[in-house]
Amino acid sequence: MTPYTTSANKNLAGQFFNGLMTFWRRRWLLRYFLHRQVTRTYKRSYLGFAWAILSPLIWVFFLTLIFSEALGLRFREIEENPNLNFGLYLYCGLLPFLAFSEAMNKGMNSIRGNSGLVQKVIFPLELLPFTNAIASMIDKFFGIGALLIVVLAFGQPLHPHVLLLPLFVVLQVVFILGLTYLMAVFGTYLPDLDEVMRPIIRGMFFLTPIIWTPDRLPEGIRWLVDYNPLAYLVEVYRDLVLRGEIPGGLSTLYFTLFSVALFIVGFTLFVRVKPRFADML
Amino acid sequence: MSAVRHAISLRGVGKRYKISPSRSSRLREVLSFGKLKHSHDFWAVQDVSFDVEPGVTLGILGRNGAGKSTLLKMISGVSQPTTGEVEVNGRLAAIFSTGAGFNPEFTGRENAMLNGLILGIDRDEMLERFETIEAFADIGEFMDQPIKTYSSGMRSRLGFAVAVNVNADVLVLDEALSAGDAAFKKKAMRRMYDLRDSGTTVLFVSHSLGMVQKFCTDAVLLHKGRMVASGAPDEVVDRYRELLEKSDKPKDTSHAHRDRQLDYAIEHEDEEDMPASPNGSSDGGKRGPRQATGEAEIVRVELLDESREPVIEVPTGTGLTVRLHTRYAQAVEDSTLGIVLRDRSGRLLFATSTALEGAPLGFRDEGESVTIDFTFGVPLRPGGYSVDAAVSVPGTAGRILARSKETATFEIVPGMKDRPVRGLIYLPTAVEIHDQDSEEQGPAT
């Protein structure tokens, strides 16, 4: 065991990689914690883990029912594809959006909501935003499973492009992690952030092509989609699952660079200020 | 000396918190980017320095809000000191409140594992220790039930069982023993003795003075964030009692008797459950109700120089007279007046009494006043010193009739022509030099 001194001051890169190493050194704690986070939601219910797949199924079912059967006629001509079911189209947009909004909300509260672990024990705080983000992504993974089940159930073809989806989910995870760490820092420093972010997150829902299609957008405000990382993810899900297309190379490159930068900035900031968290709660 | 690594080393450790009068003023302060200042600083801990050697059991005493928990948190690395440095060598396990980090939905077994992992124990090591932990917690089949079904006692038993069975080099306990029934406490104490004897460094906050006296090898006393005494537990506990007494003078004497009973009950709360110290280092007869009975009163303590003038600064090596004005509230058959001289860190340097000096006070009637002078040389090194006094009944150790209300302090300054004092005290010394060729002279004087 190496002695620790509180005045130990390393450079930024050292802190960054030291923080990353924590995940490996405390991998068992990470595993148990992740398990705890994932199963916590279902621990009380009778059906338990089955809900992970059941609840998104119910979601898709209702969305499909309402938008295709009740309002279906109005959207039948979306993207000139008569087979396209608007409920599925909507759900493809909802999945990345929900991952985003959960990352924002859980990220902000990942330190404040665990004051026991911050103040009462010596806990590697890097793990908290990480487990929050990953648990929420695992949840979304079951959502994707439900989506594929419904696509098959409606007799639509499952494109081989779906196999690429895990690759893009990894990209999404980097994006979500960066966001979560950044929000964890801001949320801890500014207790009012919760209230500020709520309308912003809601606004993002309407600014992202979830209930509308990007090709209907007037040329003047195209940037709303072009510079919106969330819009990129929404379109990736639709490309791979519904349209059977490969997402654009350039936008993928931009998104990758943006996500990696976001993660580096968010995580570095986090490990930099985390010694002060115990006093901020 | 330098080859021995301290288990814990604190150097000028302090912790500052900002206190804002209100929410809005804090906001204004934040928005002004440092131009406005509404908050004031509060030092929860200030300038604390000490070293703890491996295997030492350190009791930390102090009243509520003295900074004990803040200090422990800085030592264990939960919070960062504002000033100074903390160094800890070895694996540290800390319990600030038993069962922190427990999740009510998961079983005892799962939570024990999680708790161990939080403390930084390998999973394999944890699996190995599971049997010991389970046996120690001794909660039977509840081990596989969710924690939410536990009683609070069971919860803390499990938390304690994990912490004391993970082979930490340094164990930090913040009043962790306050829960649990008598049988468990006994077991917990036995385990603590085992840990102590096997060389684990233990830091220990407790309000049970008896426990600190019996169990600890060293103690420190915090008061308003500063360390005011350190050393042997018995002495530090005595200092703590004085501190308590000064801050809590009973206004109504009719309650004095009940207060004493309460004091006794509170101080000895945990002791009957504890096995006696195996090495028998602490003496049982020393304890008793130590609060003054009020049968006598020390009206004033004066410090006088060689010409019997009041002094604050005393040149080293000169004579000092401690003059005590006492008054007897009741007739007392026989009594003895003692004084205690301490240095700034509370270390006891010298104590004497009328009985020890062969000047018995004898029978004193109600309302009688006596003035007693103690005169002695003070060959001490420059620094701050203090004198306390007490009147007690000879023989029945512990029955104290009066204590000085305020500690008299004085400063030792360097003497005019004397040599400087190296060390704590100057001992009158004779030097003889025996040359090799003068054979007939003996080596001793």
Tell me the distance between the termini of chain A: 30 Å
Order of helices and strands of chain A: EHHHHHHHHHHHHH
Question: Element order, helices and strands of chain B?
Answer: EHEEHEEHHHEHEHEEHHEEEEEEEEE
- Most strands sheet of chain B: 6 strands, mixed
Helical residues, percent of chain A: over 70%
- Record field, number of beta strands of chain B: 18
The CATH class name of one domain in chain B reads Alpha Beta
Mean pLDDT across all residues of chain B, rounded? 79
Distance between the termini of chain B: 33 Å
Main sheet of chain B: which strands, in order across? 5-6-7-3-8-9
Gross morphology of chain A is globular
Count of DSSP-assigned helices of chain B: 9
How big is the Rg of chain B?
A: 27 Å
Shape of chain B: globular
Q: Note the quaternary state here.
A: heterodimer
The tally of structural domains of chain A comes to: 1
Overview of the molecule:
- The complex is a heterodimer of chains A (281) and B (445).
- Chain A has 281 residues and is mainly alpha-helical.
- Chain A has 13 helices and one strand; from the N terminus they run E-H-H-H-H-H-H-H-H-H-H-H-H-H.
- Chain A has helices spanning 12-25, 27-40, 51-70, 72-75, 86-109, 115-120, 127-153, 165-189, 193-207, 223-226, 229-243, 249-273, 277-280; one strand at residues 4-5.
- The relative contact order of chain A is 0.14.
- The model of chain A is unreliable at 1-8 (pLDDT under 50).
- Chain B contains nine helices and 18 strands.
- Among the domains of chain B are: 8-90 and 169-239, P-loop containing nucleotide triphosphate hydrolases (Rossmann fold, 3-Layer(aba) Sandwich); 296-413, Coagulation Factor XIII, Chain A, domain 1, CATH 2.70.50.
- In chain B, helix 3 (108-118) crosses helix 4 (123-137), helix 4 crosses helix 5 (152-164) and helix 5 runs parallel beside helix 6 (182-197).
- Helices cover 24% and strands 29% of the residues of chain B.
- In chain B, the strands form four sheets. Chain B has a six-stranded mixed beta sheet with strand order 5-6-7-3-8-9, sandwiched between helices.
- At the A-B interface, strand 1, helix 2 and helix 6 of A face helix 2, strand 4 and helix 3 of B.
